[in-house]
Structures are given as structure tokens and as C-alpha cells.
Design a protein that fits this description.
- By secondary structure, the protein is of the alpha+beta class.
- The protein has three domains: 100 residues, Alpha-Beta Complex (DNA Primase, Chain A), CATH 3.90.580; 116 residues, DNA primase, catalytic core, N-terminal domain (DNA primase DNAg catalytic core, N-terminal domain), CATH 3.90.980; 103 residues, Dna Topoisomerase Vi A Subunit, Chain: A, domain 2, CATH 3.40.1360.10.
- 35% of the residues lie in helices and 15% in strands.
- It contains 15 helices and 15 strands.
- The strands form four sheets. Strands 11-13-12-14-15 form a five-stranded mixed beta sheet, sandwiched between helices. Strands 1-2-3-4 form a four-stranded antiparallel beta sheet. The chain has a four-stranded antiparallel beta sheet with strand order 5-8-9-10, with helices on one face.
Length: 355
């Protein structure tokens, strides 16, 4: 049992915070959920949290206990179920299954509300920065990437998928409209390690995929994901969000699906676009760790079909996610792709005979 709790406490506390709907900034801070916090005063360091406003502090287990009002065993089990840690002495339970409080689906998605589920107000002034940045990229510059993935002509324009060709010119144009402070705080510019001149966060050839808000932020660019153009390049992604956790990506087809109908949940924007092209209305999480409780609550009005990648990590995620939906009073079914398709984009390529 000691080893079990050691594993629980070693889980990345910032990932635990994201699951709890606490939006952590790139400075490892967040709005404290334990008092009326106006500026981020909750700090994360050495895998512990501490609030410099109210004095609350502790480990990963303490954080879950305080936020969800659980005792130690249930808080530990809550963490274990989300990070694939076996729960000892639960012989009759299914993998990743445990019982906790039911949560009613009252929280909207972060992109819909203009706020993160952790109570951090989305920096709406950044939306204009993101939109201006995307407008500086050629409208058809993402067509090559789209074609390579088997998507139909025109999809890059429909979803504003674009590529960066001249970072220097983009930075110069952005500086004409915005101050350096807002370009840095929004994440569009970054500072090199040697503290030299700020530069564009993404380089030549990076593919930019914007996520637009829904609800009161309908149509606004609330999030930017940059994808490395090199197949083995690192990092694979660079994302900026204006201070809130990664939202769902809604395909146009998914936005039109009435509540109560089937909705496919996949990993990653390309898979959502591929599923849409194959006739399935899909939404995408930006990595399995991005499936927060707030996002699950936002999906409860639909019949969710979990269609993750077909590798072992995807299967583990699907089982765990199905359990989490059940905890919140809804059943989500697991949808398996053909055995020779590793993900939705691969299935699309096979369907269209694209190597």
C-alpha cells in the first residue's frame, strides 16, 4: 500500500490540476479555488501546490481532497483511475473503476463560456492577436498539409489551417499593431534563453490549426495549435491559449448535432477532420490528458462514442474515459476502428488509397 501511495503522489500535480479544471499558466500558477482569488496566487513547485493568498498547500492527494471534498482513499483512487495506476484490494472492480460523487452537467465548455473551468477568465484581448496572426498567413498555405492527409480540397480554407512561410515578416506586421508586452503574454512571441530579441513562437513551415470558440465566443480564435512540419521533429506541438486549459475542437458537423444524438470523441484535430469527412460528427481532445472533468460535463448532453487511437495507450484511455462518463451519470460506448487502421486519419487514407 505504501508503494501505491508513493505512485499517487508522484503523478504530475499540474496534470492533476488540469483534470480538476484548474487552469495552470505557463508560469506554473493558477487562480486558487479555495478563496476569492483575483490574480493567480496558487503556485506549483516540486510537485506540490501552495497558495500565497490563503496559505493552502499540499500534495497531489491533498489537492484532490480539498477540491472534491474526498477522504484519502477516494482521492487516491480518483487519481489512480485517471493515470492508469492499479488500485489495490479491489478484486471485484473493473479496471479504472471506482465510485465517487455524481456531478450534474452544469458547467459549459471553457471555449463556450469564455472562462476556464478553474475560474480563470479567458484573456479575450488575446483573441484579436491570434486572429491578426492567422490573417498574416496565406489563406491557401495549408493546402499541401491537408492534401497529404487525404482531406478534400478547400478544407484548409474552411478551418483556417495555414502554414508559416516568413516568421520575420509576420513579427514585423504584428509589432505594428500590438505592443511587445501583449505579444509575449499571449504566447505569439517567445524570448530566447539568452534573453535576446523575442521571436515568433513557431518557425518556417509550422502548420497552424486554430480553434474557434462556441457560445458567446462563437467564431473567435481562442486557441492556437502549431504542428511541427518535420515527421520526427520535436516538439511535435506548440500551443497557446490565453491562460486556460486546452478546449475541445468541434468540427462543423459536430456543431450541428442536436443534443441526444451520437457524437464521436477522438484524439487530435486531424482525426476529428478525418472522422467528419468519413461521415461521423466528431469533437477532438488535444491529447488524452486534456480530457478534464469540465470537458466531460460539457459532453454529457450527447451520446458519446469514444474512438481513440488503436494503440495500447488509446485503449487504456478509452476504458478510463468510459468509466469517468459513467461516474457522471452517462454511458459512453467504445468504438473500435478496423484492426489495420491505427487512427481515423489512417483510416481515411486507406479509404482513399493514399500511401
Amino acid at each position: 500500500m505504501t508503494e501505491y501511495y508513493q505512485k499517487i503522489r508522484s503523478v504530475d500535480i499540474q496534470k492533476v490540476a488540469e483534470y480538476l479544471g484548474i487552469a495552470v499558466t505557463k508560469w506554473n500558477k493558477a487562480i486558487c479555488p479555495f478563496h476569492d482569488d483575483k490574480d493567480p496566487s496558487l503556485s506549483f513547485k516540486n510537485n506540490r501546490y501552495r497558495c500565497f493568498g490563503c496559505g493552502s498547500k499540499g500534495s497531489t492527494i491533498d489537492l484532490v481532497m480539498e477540491v472534491l471534498k474526498m477522504d484519502i482513499p477516494n482521492a487516491a483512487a480518483w487519481i489512480a483511475s485517471r493515470f492508469g495506476i492499479p488500485i489495490p484490494d479491489r478484486k471485484n472492480s473493473r479496471p479504472f473503476a471506482f465510485t465517487t460523487q455524481k456531478v450534474s452537467p452544469t458547467l459549459p465548455s471553457p471555449a463556450a463560456a469564455g472562462k476556464s473551468s478553474g475560474g480563470v477568465k479567458v484573456e479575450t484581448q488575446y483573441f484579436e492577436v491570434y486572429e491578426t496572426f492567422m490573417s498574416l498567413l496565406a489563406e491557401n498555405s495549408g493546402e499541401k498539409w491537408v492534401k497529404q492527409r487525404g482531406f478534400p480540397e478547400g478544407l484548409a480554407v474552411t478551418y483556417s489551417i495555414r502554414s508559416i512561410y516568413s516568421p520575420t515578416l509576420v513579427v514585423a506586421a504584428l509589432r505594428e499593431k500590438f505592443s511587445e508586452d501583449i505579444l509575449l503574454s499571449s504566447g505569439v512571441l517567445a524570448v530566447p534563453k539568452d534573453k535576446g530579441a523575442p521571436y515568433l513562437n513557431w518557425g518556417t513551415g509550422w502548420i497552424m490549426l486554430p480553434i474557434r470558440g462556441v457560445g458567446e465566443n462563437e467564431g473567435r480564435i481562442v486557441f492556437l495549435q502549431g504542428r511541427n512540419p518535420l515527421p520526427e521533429g520535436k516538439p511535435r506541438f506548440k500551443e497557446i491559449s490565453g491562460g486556460f486549459q486546452r478546449p475541445l475542437f468541434w468540427t462543423n458537423a459536430a456543431k450541428e448535432i442536436p443534443e441526444g444524438e451520437d457524437l464521436i470523441l477522438v484524439e487530435g484535430i486531424p482525426d476529428a477532420l478525418a472522422a467528419e469527412y468519413l461521415g461521423y460528427p466528431a469533437v477532438a481532445i488535444l491529447g488524452v490528458e486534456a480530457l478534464s472533468d469540465a470537458i466531460i460535463r460539457s459532453l454529457l448532453p450527447w451520446r458519446i462514442k469514444l474512438a481513440a487511437d488503436m494503440d495500447s495507450a488509446g485503449r487504456i484511455f478509452s476504458v478510463a474515459a468510459a468509466e469517468r462518463f459513467e461516474e457522471m451519470g452517462r454511458f459512453a460506448t467504445i468504438m473500435e476502428l478496423p484492426s489495420d487502421a491505427k487512427d481515423w486519419n489512417d483510416l481515411l487514407k486507406q479509404t482513399l488509397n493514399i500511401c
